[in-house]
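Schema walkthrough. Field components (list of strings):
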Amino acid sequence: MKIACWNVNSVKARLPRLIDYLTESSVDVLCLQELKTIDEGFPREEVEALGYHIETHGQKTYNGVAILSKFPIEDVLRGLPGDDSDEQARYIEATINGVRIASIYLPNGNPVDTEKFPYKLGWMDRLISHAEKLLTSETPVVLSGDYNVIPQDEDCYDAKAWEGDALTRPESRHKFRQLLNMGYTDAYRSFTPDINYTFWDYQRGAWQKDNGIRIDHLLLSPQAADQLTNVGIDKAPRGQERPSDHTPIWITLDL
DNA sequence: ATGGTAGGAAGCCTA
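Field assembly_structure (string):
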């Protein structure tokens, strides 16, 4: 089973790119982030025509996540548990072929001297609590998404340029490591020493200069990590016309 | 040191 993760930065603006990717990549499951539309605005017919089931957790203007799958999608959970007052659509989770799969759009957290940074850290605490609960199932779990965390300096073209940013702050990295230390595996880093990125800013010719960062991650429970057979970052979509600033990252599991 | 780009909503906010 091939599972991919892609922050599309508006599913409506990215529909041609999304159709290309679904047609060419042969992914069984695709976790999307930053839909930037309500559920009713999702281009459902176009995606269903390619053979995918769709579950969305949308929101007007900002955020919004979805799971697309060639297999039936069961037991959908919308919203990250732990704070009923949180109205931001950043989390959806469901079971596909016996694998519990989440699509995560973790808060950016900048600027760090505003309420945005504590919101990010609190959101990460809730994710940690929920991830702990999922581990007790002792079944394959895949937490995939835009984590807005650069785990280590090597995951950034120039660590100095990102010093002090919410994506590299020690608090953000520490909470990301808590997910690893409780038993989740960073699929990409576990599989290859290669330096590769998943995001290049639209500005300052970042793509042309390969000034990228690795912030989109698939974290695997032990039962999922045991089945991991391959990982990759598909850079082609970032170089195409009207691209997202993120590009897809994927894994294959031998279930 | 600053401002550069993209998307959505509506004449600014988020990234």
